[in-house]
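Re-run with default settings, no changes from the original entry. Doing this only to confirm the output is reproducible before filing.
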Amino acid sequence: MAALNNKKISQKTRRIVGIAIFSSLAFVVSLLIRFPVQFLTFDAKDAIITVSAFIYGPVVAPVVSFLAAFLELVTISDTGWYGFIMNFVSSTVYSLTASLIYKRLRSLNGALVGIFSAVIATTGVMMGLNILVTPLYMQQIGVPMTAAGIVEMIPTVLLPFNFAKTLLNSAVVMLIYKPLNVALSRLGIGSASPSAMRIGKSTVIISAVGIISLIVSIVIFYILA
């Protein structure tokens, strides 16, 4: 019984340490990998948050999303609570969708289905959120903007931006998940099994899909810019 309790404590501690590490890492990534696309801003923190949810389970997704968005709010954000809401919802929808599917389908297909379902879900949710939140933020800074005006921007700016943003984050997830999980497992806070250390067919396929996704997203951003 004592051994079982120690194991549970160890798992709980590992998850808490992991949440702290990934929340900090997501914030650092939002500082380092950040660039403007017209009046919008891309950052890659959703990839880090999703990797944390893949390793520690979907329940971690909204927690790390909240902590990363809050750290951004109180440090570098110039959009206040409006930006916090957008960041939190976007990160949560993306990471939670991907990790829930991956938890049910723990395979190459599950990973790909989860990631690309997250792209579709997040792009759709953010379209609606842009229509609701962006006019309020614009009014606050003295720029007249209506929901109808936002709708007109969907096909030319908002849809391609959100699609490219989630696709690029997906590419990062596909390229860093395995090596990062393996590295954390060697430190005792990851979830990779010994067999995960080997590079197999699934690793090659998902890396190839990640590279293609990265190229496509960069092209879209280049066109938007």
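Residues 1-6 have pLDDT under 50 and may be disordered. The chain has one domain: 2-224.
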